[in-house]
Amino acid sequence: MSSSSALPLPFPFFFFFLHLLLLFPPCCTGCSRHLLLHAGANYSTSLADMLHGGSNVTDGLRRYLARFGYASSSAPDDDPDGNLIVSLYQSTLGLPVTGRLDARTLDLLATPRCGVPDLHLQPNTTARFAFFEGQPRWARAPGHFLLTYAVVSSSPPYQPLPLPRRAVRRAFRRAFARWARVIPVRFRETRDYNMADVRVGFLAGDHGDGEPFDGPLGVLGHAFSPPSGQLHLDAAERWAVLGGNDGGSADAGAVDLESVATHEIGHVLGLAHSSVPDAVMYPSLKPRTRKTELTLDDVRGVQALYGSNPRFSLSSLSEPDTSSASPAAATTTRSPGKTTSTATATPLLLLVAVAVLC
């Protein structure tokens, strides 16, 4: 019997799909634009209006960027094509500066983010972290000092907790501990919400502080500079605790509570947004992404305000955990619906086919 050099049957199909994939760039079901544009009315209307023009700079986009501190280049008469405002956005957030709404820029624009405006760094600086104007910080006696915090569960205008209280408290305890590890500040939870230094709550829509929330996968939360201590999270998000031991599976719109909490605590301490994409203080966070470990940029920024914890060494920093939650990851997700644990494997050909057809 003569040997045959023919490829096994699946391979021609594989190369066929690969050819289509190269001809037609895929729309990933996990990417920010897909989640926004294919999810209908459940997603942020401000983001939908912003991207309605596709690759054009729309009035909605100008208003959206003005909300986050890019107002200086938002006037259509001064920047009719929108190149200046897009370039400013790109340079501030560490993207290649093209002045165009390319794929990376559109994806970042559609990514859920913090509601605190981006403060623009001075040119030619080696530091990527930033502070609020005047560099406010908590004023306490030299050396270690204590800040208390409280999580309000349900007292109007605050909404009920979106997850079990134990899971929420645990997420914030870990988030505060990360900052306490690197600076001489201790954090302790208290039941007295009115007397706490830092006050955490979930709110919806216009909640009276001039910074209204806009629904799922828009603005995730915001916090105010010292000594305000106000830390607000959008109750409309589908909050989750990714990578925990509580079981369940994160859906496409799940947002990791611990990641957002760690970011907003940075604002409470006096840090503004960083231009380093891997930093905790970067303003955007993709759904189903866990981003909790402080980077060198985060640590240097907060230590510039408070000094270093004597027991902390920069050499102990680990790589930031910015992984997306896989279907097999253990999660706790905001109901409705019960949580279930799943672990699936998808054949390569099916993945390629889905990518092409998306």
Automatic annotation (TrEMBL):
Its cofactor is Zn(2+); Ca(2+). Ca(2+) 2 binds at D197. Zn(2+) 1 binds at H207, D209, H222, H232. PROSITE patterns: CYSTEINE_SWITCH (PS00546). Keywords: Calcium, Hydrolase, Metal-binding, Metalloprotease, Protease, Signal, Zinc, Zymogen. One of its GO terms (biological process) is proteolysis. One of its GO terms (cellular component) is extracellular matrix. It comes from the Eukaryota. SUPFAM superfamilies: Metalloproteases ('zincins'), catalytic domain, PGBD-like. Zn(2+) 2 binds at C114, H263, H267, H273, M281. The active site is at E264. Residues 1-30 form the signal peptide. Residues 134-308 form the Peptidase metallopeptidase domain. Binds 2 Zn(2+) ions per subunit. Can bind about 5 Ca(2+) ions per subunit. Ca(2+) 3 binds at D214, G215, D234, E237. Residues 313-341 are annotated as: Disordered. Pfam families: Peptidase_M10 (PF00413), PG_binding_1 (PF01471). Ca(2+) 1 binds at E237. GO terms for molecular function: metalloendopeptidase activity; zinc ion binding. Belongs to the peptidase M10A family. Matrix metalloproteinases (MMPs) subfamily. This is Peptidase metallopeptidase domain-containing protein. It comes from Triticum aestivum (Wheat). The lineage of its organism: Eukaryota, Viridiplantae, Streptophyta, Embryophyta, Tracheophyta.
